[in-house]
Write a structure and sequence with these properties.
single chain; about 325 residues; alpha/beta; Rossmann fold; 2 domains; five-stranded parallel β-sheet; 11 strands
């Protein structure tokens, strides 16, 4: 797709360093070879060096020239332990616990990003989403003004003129089960930033509901309208509207009929779902029924780029997410 080709070109130009803490995982090793060969990013593999080299040899993955960092042998290990202790001592973490934690590859790699030794991190081929997000929240933390981490997908719908010629950002489809109004507002603001940075889109954000402009009365609708108020107060220049039904958000004729004064009706390219159930169901229906490509999910709201893979990811998925992480790092 043109979107991915454009991302790869941006990643090459950015020349960022991305750390992969699952250093001996077979798909990660094959991806590291491709990323390095195509110059999408400089790769750092974290893990026990002998294990990584043995796994690479077994997979016939050429990792020559790729930096390998082994936590316990690293010159930065003690500093990382001390830093983690200072960050978490108020939570009851002892120096001994900090030292043990820094043996964990994901925590060590996250600290590398925190310290500026890498520009971003990609994990999740063999770790859960929680295993990826937890170290980021404890070490890197969220962006100023953002309290929660969310996710988004870039949806590429073939033969479609809606959105930005078939391109949409869907959120949150993977992280927040039942966001509050303030969390929903943060999701919208983060998703708009994703649309600008990754898709070169002028974000037009629809806060989706089963109601348009109060056509239905329910607490679920109230949450969406409250989120819109918060967004307009905190990001007044953002084009956003809601509560709004999906057809009014993306179909020009419906939008003109239901909400003719809206600045985004019929033209929305960022769709923010009211909860995880609707978001997850929505993106999968579009993916399967419209034969759309769902690129992501990408994590949003963390102060530096950290992205989570599906444990069923392919080598190509890892390559693309690393490229995306490199592009995200250009906006930090």
């Amino acid at each position: 797709m043109d979107f991915l080709r454009s991302l790869h070109q941006k990643a090459i130009a950015a020349s960022k360093t991305i750390v992969l803490p699952e250093g001996n995982e077979p798909r990660t090793l094959k991806a590291a070879e491709i990323i390095t060969r195509e110059k999408l990013a400089k790769v750092i593999l974290v893990g026990i060096e002998t294990d990584i080299k043995k796994a690479a040899e077994k997979e016939k993955a050429d990792i020559s020239g790729i930096q390998i960092v082994e936590p316990l042998k690293s010159e930065f290990y003690k500093d990382f332990c001390d830093t983690f202790f200072e960050l978490r001592k108020a939570k009851g973490v002892t120096p001994e616990q900090a030292a043990e934690t820094m043996k964990n590859e994901v925590y060590f790699a996250t600290m590398m990003v925190h310290k500026g030794l890498a520009d971003g991190l990609v994990s999740g081929a063999i770790h859960s989403t929680g295993d990826t997000i937890r170290p980021a929240l404890q070490i890197i933390k969220t962006k100023p003004g953002i309290k929660s981490v969310s996710s988004s997908f870039v949806m590429l719908v073939p033969d479609c003129k809606m959105g930005s010629n078939g391109m949409f950002v869907f959120a949150d489809c993977a992280v927040n089960i039942d966001p509050t109004a303030s969390e929903l507002a943060e999701i919208a603001i983060s998703s708009a930033e994703t649309a600008k940075v990754l898709c070169d889109m002028e974000p037009k954000v629809a806060m989706l509901s089963f109601s348009t402009y109060g056509s239905a009365k329910h607490q679920y609708v109230d949450k969406v309208t409250e989120a819109v108020k918060i967004i307009k107060a905190s990001a007044p220049d953002l084009k956003v509207d809601g509560d709004i039904q999906a057809d009014a958000a993306i179909v020009a004729s419906v939008g003109k009929t239901k909400c003719p004064e809206s600045k985004i009706a019929g033209e929305a390219n960022v769709l923010v779902f009211p909860d995880l159930q609707s978001g997850n169901i929505g993106y999968k229906l579009v993916q399967r029924l419209a034969k759309a490509e769902a690129v992501g999910p990408f994590l949003q709201g963390i102060a530096k780029p950290v992205n989570d893979l599906s444990r069923g990811c392919s080598v190509e998925d890892i390559v693309n997410v690393v490229a995306i992480t490199a592009v995200q790092a250009t906006s930090e």
